[in-house]
Design brief:
The protein is an alpha/beta fold. It is built from 8 helices and 10 strands. Helices cover about 35% and strands about 20% of the residues. The strands form 2 sheets. A 7-stranded parallel beta sheet has the order 3-2-1-4-5-6-10, with helices on both faces. Helix 1 packs across helix 5 and helix 3 runs parallel beside helix 4. It is globular and about 50 Å long.
């Protein structure tokens, strides 16, 4: 398939380039250029015309775009513009282009309000606080509406703490350390594999999936559904990290 990858210059985006190119022709789109990718589209997802042009000739979308600069969530302006309006733009442009398959990077942030004694499954109502979590929940509302109203298949992935399992480092490059709980860790390359599965799994409608790679995550979240329905299993479970530091 010809796949538009938004947020291609981000942490997960760069991993997704590697994974998706194994099977698909990938068009890269981000507001930040990647020097080694001269053919990528550089533009603002919050501009509808730009989003429409980016989707020309595409068969599917993997939407990873999000505002991530320091201080971005101090006010509603950037989260609402980039995360929410940008997602709405890509969904609407995809609908107009006749694209039916859409993979969206959501977040476990939409259920951060639940305590550890609650088993987290996808039928639970959203429960959270804070601007970031609100913007991610609004993205999911948009995805659900477009799937219901227009018959699109939209896979929403809900990771928690994305890191690099190859180098055992966090997003900022600092070494991972076990601090008594590591339930939310997931390697960005394993997350990219979940994106690839979302493009080919035989599903319809709006389908959210929690993405956790550790044994703690398996116990707290409904990962059985993710394994059974999406077919996703992580290569990196971070067991060695826990065993070395306990």
């Amino acid at each position: 398939m010809r796949v538009l990858l938004t947020g291609a210059a981000g942490c997960v985006g760069k991993a997704a380039i590697e994974v998706l190119r194994r099977e698909h022709e990938v068009r890269l789109f981000d507001v930040v250029p990647i020097p080694s990718e001269p053919e990528m589209l550089v533009g603002d997802i919050a501009d509808f015309r730009t989003a429409t042009e980016a989707l020309a000739g595409m068969d599917a979308v993997v939407n990873l775009a999000i505002i991530a600069t320091p201080g971005s969530y101090d006010t509603p302006e950037l989260p609402m513009r980039v995360n929410v309006q940008g997602t709405a733009n890509i969904l609407e442009a995809a609908r107009r282009a006749g694209i039916r398959r859409f993979v969206h990077m959501s977040s476990g942030a939409v259920v951060t309000g639940y305590t550890r004694d609650t088993f987290i499954h996808v039928e639970l109502p959203y429960k959270f606080s804070g601007m970031y979590c609100l913007s991610k929940a609004l993205q999911e509302y948009l995805c659900r509406q477009y799937a219901t109203e227009y018959g699109m298949t939209i896979i929403a992935l809900r990771p928690w703490s994305v890191c690099d399992g190859r180098t055992m480092t966090a997003k900022g490059g600092q070494p991972l350390k076990y601090d008594g709980s590591y339930f939310g860790l997931v390697c960005r390359y394993d997350l990219a594999e979940a994106c690839a599965l979302g493009l080919r799994v035989d599903l319809t409608g709006f389908q959210p999936f929690h993405i956790m790679a550790t044994d703690e995550g398996e116990r707290w979240f409904d990962m059985e559904r993710t394994h059974r329905v999406l077919g996703w299993y992580p290569k990196e479970t971070f067991a060695s990290l826990k065993s070395k530091q306990t």
